[in-house]
Every structure is written in C-alpha cells, then in structure tokens.
Amino acid sequence: MSCWMPGCPALSMCRSLATLPITCLERAKDLKTRLGILLHKPELGHMIGTSSKLQLGSRRRDSSREVLEWRESFDQLLKSKSGVTAFHTFLKTEFSEENLDFWLACEDFKKTRSKTKLASKANRIFEEFVQSEAPREVNIDHETREITRKNLSGATSACFNEAQAKTRTLMEKDSYPRFLKSASYQDMTKQATSRGISKRSHT
C-alpha cells in the first residue's frame, strides 16, 4: 500500500517501521515465519493434546496406586502428601487433628538450621501442643511432657523426638485403623480399583 498524501496512515506507519532497529525487524519476521509454520501444522496440536492426555492418565494411575498403598502401612500414608491431606480431613471429623498437626510441626522443626529459630520454634510448638492446658494439647503422658520441657533449655532438632514418637504410635494404633475403615477411604479405594480395572480392560 502506498500513499503520497501528507498525514496518510500508511505513510506514517512506514516511517515508524523505518525508525526501528534492524534487529527488531528481523526478529519480527522470524516470529511471523515460525507462527506460520505452527499454524500450518495441525498434527502438532494433535500431538500436544495427546501428550497432555497421556500425562493426565499417568497421574491418575499414580494417584490410584498411591491410594491403595496407604493401607499397606502408616508409613506409606505419611510419605504421601495426598495421603496426609486425606488423613487430616478424617481426623477433623473426629476432632483429633492436633495429633497430626503436631507430628507435621515436628517434621518441619527438624529441618530448621538456625539455632535462634530452633529455640523460638521449639517454644512455640511446646506452648501450642505439649504443655498442660495447651490450646491444641496432644495426648501424651506426664513423664514425656516433662522430658520435653527439660529439652527446651538446650533446644536441638531432637528435643521433640519422644513426644512425636508417642503421638505417632497413638495415631497408628488408634486413628489410622479407623481411617482405613472410614466411608471416605472406602470410596477412594473403590474409585482407585475401578480405574485399575478400566485400565486393564483397555490394554
């Protein structure tokens, strides 16, 4: 398109393009060429779609296997992020989620490297979960409570080990078996099993 008249939009646009650095114009042309190639390759879009479906299917198979692994041992459940979430949701229905929250707080506490942060975190965890009449007091014996209190004077990453172990044992022997029998987990295992059957029938 050409125009000799003053104020012509095409003329001003050409002048604007002329002032751009050569590299910018070259990049724009290169981008246009690449977009043209992509637009004329419908099979590429099909490949991307197929890849997404395969990844989604893989994730579903992984999650189905994971759900079934939770019943193998309490350790398997605690190793799984989605397992911990499902177990936490169940514990809320029993008003006993403080046991798992304490265990998770201890796991996080062990990763602390700064001595200053270690001491402040230790006090915060003790006040929230361990001391008598704590807002979210966990069910541990008096002796373990006192051992943990003494450990705070020289807080190390191991100062909650005994209290954490007692809480874990309590969950494993008490809450975990009830979780496996719960309607919510039974529904999850049925879905996981049906996915497995569906997968086998399509192979």
UniProtKB/TrEMBL annotation:
Keywords: GTPase activation, Lipoprotein, Membrane, Palmitate, Phosphoprotein, Signal transduction inhibitor
Record-annotated RGS domain positions: 73-189
Localisation: Membrane
Gene Ontology biological-process entries: negative regulation of signal transduction
MF terms (GO), sorted A to Z: GTPase activator activity
Coiled coil: none
InterPro entries xref list: RGS (IPR016137), RGS_sf (IPR036305), RGS_subdom1/3 (IPR024066), RGS_subdomain_2 (IPR044926)
Membrane topology summary: Lipid-anchor
A Gene Ontology cellular-component term: membrane
First and last residue of the signal peptide: none
Function text: Regulates G protein-coupled receptor signaling cascades. Inhibits signal transduction by increasing the GTPase activity of G protein alpha subunits, thereby driving them into their inactive GDP-bound form. Plays an important role in the phototransduction cascade by regulating the lifetime and effective concentration of activated transducin alpha. May regulate extra and intracellular mitogenic signals.
Protein name, as recorded: Regulator of G-protein signaling 16
Gene symbol of the encoding locus: Rgs16
